[in-house]
Amino acid sequence: MNKNRTVRRVAGILKSFSRQSPEVGITELANRLGMAKSVVHGIVTTLVEEGLIAKIDKESRYIPGGEIFRIAHVMTDQLKLQRFALPVMEELHRLTGETVVLVGWIGKDVRCLEKIEGDAAVRLVVNVGDRLPLYAGSGGKLMLAFLPEKEREEIIKRISFIPFTRHTITDPDTLREQLADIRERGYVVCALERWEDVASIGAPVRDSSGRVIGGVVIGGIVTHFTPENIERFIPMVVKAAQKISAKLGFVDEE
Fold first, then answer.
1. Which CATH number is associated with domain 2-64?
2. What CA–CA distance (Å, rounded) separates 145 from 244?
3. Which of 106, 151, 167, 189 has the fewest Cβ atoms within 10 Å of its own Cβ atom?
């Protein structure tokens, strides 16, 4: 109960900022929220230390901190990615008939951001918001492959490599080899790694700076992914990712 009360007090302080009140003081917050000034001061001090609010003068006036703007910027980028991606994903679904998924980083996890169901009666068990493994399946490996080397290695060292199927990668060196291959080819093809009857193909989405911020993945029953269909699907997926990247301002100079 005390934890819930503390969280509500923190939320109340953060929600006190508005266009009408872009800066607030301790006394003002205490009066507005019906809290003791000492309690407000203690919470505000911690929020300042965490970068969520910032003190602007000696009279104890406060404004939203840099961390708030960073979080807002992340959400803006994600929403922009989803908005630009959806029509391209719909087109890719029409071309392939397979399930189309948009993936991206949410904090330290790769998650499904958008999904368009395929035409097959059997549905993929991936829903919007689901966390994807970084070592099994196209979505996670695609995003891991294009991280900066230092960051990528730190993550690989933390992976437990619990097998989903007998085809799941279970050692870091094999994963490193596959990630290097993904970077070289510019796309990923996976089969039977997370589920025994599923295959997938993915390609990276880049922002205006060239940074990979997402990925487009098609997936379906492995029998649909014959060598002939894989050869046909790959350029479709790569082109879809390139279209979304272009909408985000990426210019391929090669």
1. 1.10.10.10
2. 19
3. 151
